Amino acid sequence: MSKYPLLFKEKNKKEIEKRRKLALEEAKKMAVFLKDDFQADKVILFGSVLEKERFGLSSDIDLAVTGISDQLFYRAYGKWIDKDLIEIEKLIQRIKNGWEKYKNENDELYLDSVALNLHSFYSGLEKIFLLIGREIDENIPQSDAWHQELLEQMTLNIEEVRPAVISDKSKNSLDDYRGFRHVVRNVYAYHYDPEKISLLIKNLDKAYLSLKKDIKRFLTMIKKSS
């Protein structure tokens, strides 16, 4: 029996802990950002990021904030999402670089890296969706299919709450990345399909640019409504 799946699992654990530490650092930056730039009274960190055993690849940063007006909240909210989008764009470049190295060197470790970064690409977008669900919709899907339901929720125009966050076009293009996220979390690395990954990378820029356009439009609309 090959030891490779076990080695990959151990590598995955190290990656999760690395991300947890980065999340803690990011939370500290967010607290300083909210207090210094937006005069928040209190910023309290809670959730899985504080518990090593609960933190996973799809975990996000949970903050409770007091002392910010609605208008300032939406400004802070938009500025923070812009920061997330910048990080996602860096991630897209890493995906492309890793894919080129895989094609040139035929080393499956690069394929593994690309797969994990594609997982992180969708998880990064989902973090934005979760933030919108918690802070604006005040509703996060709770069923076993919550990842799919959350994506669909972002297409809804919720009367007297918010406009649609993304278009049906963006939702359809992102659905393949949501599905691949499930693959990464539930199969061994040696089961990754290079042809499937190649198609995801081919469509990556188009999917992201459509999503970014939708997010920018959404942020402009909620700032005006506040």
Q: How would you describe this structure in keywords?
A:
226 residues, mainly alpha, 2 domains, two-stranded antiparallel ribbon, 7 helices, 2 strands
Give a short summary of the structure:
This protein has 226 residues and is mainly α.
Structural write-up:
The protein is mainly alpha-helical and 226 residues long. The chain folds into two domains: 1-71, no CATH class; 81-226, Four Helix Bundle (Hemerythrin (Met), subunit A) (Up-down Bundle). Helices cover 70% and strands 4% of the residues. It contains seven helices and two strands; from the N terminus they run αββαααααα. It has helices at 4-38, 70-105, 108-137, 146-153, 168-186, 194-202, 204-225, and strands spanning 42-46, 62-66. The chain has a two-stranded antiparallel sheet with strand order 1-2. It is globular and about 55 Å long. The model has no long low-confidence stretch (mean pLDDT 84).
What class, by secondary structure content? mainly alpha
Q: What oligomeric state best describes the polypeptide chains here? A: single chain
How many structural domains in the coordinates?
2
Number of E strands: 2
Largest sheet at a glance? 2 strands, antiparallel
Named at the architecture level, the CATH assignment of the largest domain is: Up-down Bundle
Strand order of the largest sheet: 1-2
Radius of gyration: 18 Å
Q: What is the mean pLDDT?
A: 84
N-end to C-end Cα span: 60 Å
What is the string of helix and strand elements?
HEEHHHHHH
Strand content: under 5%
Quick one: CATH class of the largest domain? Mainly Alpha
The helix tally amounts to: 7
- In CATH terms, what is the fold-level topology of the largest domain? Four Helix Bundle (Hemerythrin (Met), subunit A)
Please mark out the parts with pLDDT under 50 across 5 or more consecutive residues, or reply none. none
Bulk shape: globular
